[in-house]
Each structure stands twice: as C-alpha cells, then as structure tokens.
Amino acid sequence: MRRKNGPLFWVTLGILTVVFVGPLLLILLTSFKSQSESRTVPPTYFPAEPTLRAYDVLFFQDAASPVLLWFANSLGAASMHALLVVTVCSLAGYALARMEFRFKRAIFTGIILTLFVPSFIFLMPNFLILDKVGWLDTIWALVVPGAAGAFGVFFMRQFFLGLPKELEESARLDGAGPFRTWWSIVLPNARPALVTLAVLSFLANWNDFIWPIYVLFSPERLTLPAGLSRLQGAYTIDYPVVMAGAMLAAIPVLALYVFVQRYVIEGVASSGVKG
Amino acid sequence: MSTTSGQPAPVTGRAAAAADGAVELVEEVDEPRGPGRTSGIHGSRLTPYLFLAPFLTLFTVFVLVPGLLGIWISLHNWDFLLPNKPFVGAQNYLDLFDSSSVQFESFWNSMRATGFFVLISVPFLVVLPLLLAMLLHRHFPGRTFFRAIFFAPFVLGVAVIGLMWSYLLDPSFGLVNGMLGAIGLPDDTAWTTSQPYAWISLAAVTIWWTMGFNAVIYLAGLGDIPADHYEAAELDGASSWQQLRYITIPGLRPVLVFIVITTVLASANMFGQSYLITQGGPGETTRTAIMVITDLGLTQYRMGEASAMSYVLAVFLSLVALVNFWALREKK
Prior knowledge:
The structure holds two protein chains of two kinds. Chain A is mainly alpha-helical. Chain A has a domain at 62-234: MetI-like fold. Chain A has 13 helices and no strands. Chain A has helices spanning 7-30, 53-61, 67-98, 104-113, 123-133, 140-143, 150-162, 166-173, 178-189, 191-207, 210-215, 224-234, 239-274. In chain A, α2 (53-61) packs across α13 (239-274), α10 packs across α13 and α12 packs antiparallel against α13 (239-274). Chain A is globular and about 75 Å long. The mean pLDDT of chain A is 89. The longest helix of chain B has 35 residues, at 40-74. The interface between A and B is large, with 106 and 113 residues.
C-alpha cells in the first residue's frame, strides 16, 4: 500500500486536474472576452482585451432577462427548501430512530420504498397538484414538493441511530419533554448531519433544471438555470454573455463547496456505501 | 414548552420499567383515553405522530397522491387544456405498443436513444471512476484537495454544464476544435450537430460531469477493505493485477452493485445534456425518453399519453435494475 508515488503518478494527477478544472477556467476567461473575440478562428484562450461588457449586458442591459432577480429567486428557493428539508426530516427521522409507536415499521418501509420510484413519475401529477393549490409559477413550486423525498428522512434516522442514548436519557431525567430533548440535546449533537443534509438539499435545489423550466412561466419568476436556458436561445451568438451567466450560477455553489466540501463528499459517500 | 411540561414522570417511569419496546406497546394500547390535552400520558402517545406529521403531510401530498394520480391520469385522455378528460382504460398503454399510433414512433425512438446512451456512458462511468478512486486511495500529500477537485464538476447543475459545453463544442469557434487544430488534428468536427459525434459529446460531457461522484463512492468502499489483506497478498508475492482481481474487486462488490444500478438509472434519466447541447438532434437522434415525456406532457399538456409513457419507462427501468442486481449478486 505504501508504494512510492513516482513521477508518472504526479503527471497523471496533473493531467486529470487540467481536464477537470480547465473547462471551467476557459469559460471564466471567455466571459471576459468581447463578442467578436469569442468568435475568432482559431479561438483564443486568454482574452486579448479583457472586458466586463458581458456582465454589464447580463445584469443591466436586457429588461426581458432580469438575471439579478433570477439569482435572488434561486437563492431564496434553495435556502427555504434546505431549511424545510432539514426541519421536517430531523423531526421525522428522530421519531423513527428513537420512539416506539404503532405502524412505525409500516410507515418507515413505505417511505423507503419510494426511494426506488423514479422521480419522473411525479412530474405530471405534481404539476396538477400545484395547479390545484395555486402554486404554479410561484416560488412554493420550487420549495415544497421536493422536500417530501425519502432520502432526508432515511439519512437523519441513520444518523440518530448512531448517537449515544445517554445524553437524551439524562435530559429526560432532568425533566425535559421529547420536543425539548430533540431541540436542545439531539439537534446540537447532530450538527454534521444537519449541515450535510442542508448543503445537499441546497445544491440539488439550486441546480434543478427540469422542474423549474416547466412549473415557472413568468420571466421575473424564473430561477437562474431556467432563465439561462432561455438566454441561450436569445443570445445564440453572444457567447460571453451566456458564459457570464453560467459563471453566475456556478460561482456560488463552487464557493459553498470550497467551504463544506468535506460534508458534501462524505455525505455522498455514506449515502452510497450504506444506502 | 407548555405542552410537554406534564410529561417527565410517566416517560421516565416507562423508560425505566420497559427496556424493550414490546411492554411499552402493550401499555399504550391499554391506556384509557384521557380528556385532558396536556395530560402527560396522552401527550406522549401522540408525540411520535406530531414529530412525523410535517413530513408525512408533505409525503402524502407530493409523493403518495401523485404516485396514484399518475396512474389515474394515464387511464384517461387527459388533455390539461380541455374541460373533458374521458376515461379510455388501457388505451394510452396499448397505443404505445401499436405501430400505427401517433406516439409509437417518437416514443420508441426515444427509448432506443435512451438505451443507447446508457450503453455508451455506463461502462466508462463504472470503470474510469474506479481507476480514479484507486489513484486517490494512495497516500500522498494533497489527497483531500485532489479529491475535491475531481468532484467539483458534479456540484454544478446541468444548466451550467450544458451551456458551457455547447460553447466549448461549437464547431467553428469552440475551444475543443481549437485545441484539436493546434495539435494538427481535424478542427471542423460538428460535435453537436452530426452523428456519431453528438453521442460522443453527450457521453463525454456526462462522464466529465459525474465521474467524481462515482469515484467518491468507490473511494469510501476502498477505505472499508482492510489494509492487512493487501499486506498479506504482498507477502505471498501477489502482483498488482492479482490484488485488484482477488482483493479489490471482490471487496468492492456491494459498492459496485450500487454504482452500476444508480449509474444506469441516472443515464436513463438523461435530459438536460440533450436539451441544452444537441436540442435532441441531429434529427431526433438524441431525443431521450424523458425529453419526449416532458415535451408531450408538460409542453403540449397531453398528460394521459405522457403518463402512460412514464409508467412504461419506469417498468423498463425496474426490470433493468432487477437484472443488474441479479447478474451482480454474490455467487455462492
């Protein structure tokens, strides 16, 4: 196992790093090009005359594409969604991990079985349900339906099962009720799991594409991914603007990822191995 | 706090009395129903359901009801825009297997395209991440950093991936052709508008995007294989290839099953890459099943036919998952 890593190893790592990071850097560089430079043959890598024109056009020049509003919509929807998922899943997961009640097994099995149902099954019926409750073309269409997924409950239940019971028991001996125990003893000890679930939910919601393009209609209600795909149609040839838009959608999640990559990667890894 | 203030005595009493849940259950069933809302016993019986209520409400409204509603829709000529949605029984399903029906051609064309994409993407997404994970499993400074780098594309959404690669793959001023030209290769390949290049592009972009995800799962699996297995093998003079064949692969079997099944399902759900990079073209060659279903159901609003399609696709995918599971199971 502890074989020495020769030059070939480091060259391979270097090439892979270029392959994975290079395309993102090229897109960032393209967003600083003028429109004419983005269309030169052969293409340039570094902008000859770096300009912020694409960002100016993206943010301020096109009233039909309110990009800053899309950004705010995405941020609001993803944050509220993450908060909702963490709240309902840590409540339900705690009951399933620690409490005894009738139909517990049936409820848990029923929730887990839906993990195996492909999500496209729910597209059309959920569209109709949102239509019935009047949530089409509103932010609630993005925040709420996805929070009913089984993964979060399963994830929190597994984490709670792994927590030592002693803390909760002593809290109860001190007179704390179940809700208070959950709030002031269990949740503070579940911080890593809560952060992981919140981050994964935020990322999934921020990145979601298929759902917002069909349940949102008004230009001012769109999320960034949904809006950008319309931008692609509108600016087929103005690549720097579209790439600036892609950067605007990429940079917040990459920044979040830099800070919490350990949580993201370990959350994903545990879901695969234990799930 | 007021609702829980009456509880401590019965709860702790029970916890002390009943080490196993069975006693508790019996006790709960026999409890008389007290009228007082804040009565400790009554409150604690309800407590689990109060904890579950928010999730179960969402789960019922957005998972259980739609799961059944979808079947109901598929049995009707359900045009969202028309007032009448007549019951048609299994007609929407039968039409999918009747070559003279309107949807037959586009549906099966999309099913073929989806199946083809699974075949060309999954082998790479199973093998390359394993190699990457084995590389990252070695001991070297900066291991966590490189792991984070290779995972990074996966945190981006398909919209970003699609937009960036449709520029990079542009036949005339895209940087992919630019680089190929710079090293003396043909620089005019129509990566997004001609076959087989459109398929190669979609598969390559998907591999680039999601490979880090599978690698991270493999990496967790590799960490679970005890190091002394390798040490023993090394003492016995086993080559690297033999170690891979007889220790790594068998040790990874459960992870491998998980990766194959989830990757097949992920590739079969492909939508955004085709939508943004090839727009389903050239012709209709890269129009996937999900594209046809969403276009019919959520753009043309003919939800009956589209729902029938989605259930047929779901049954197909379950069969494929079962076959994978059966083929990869532990053989004794």
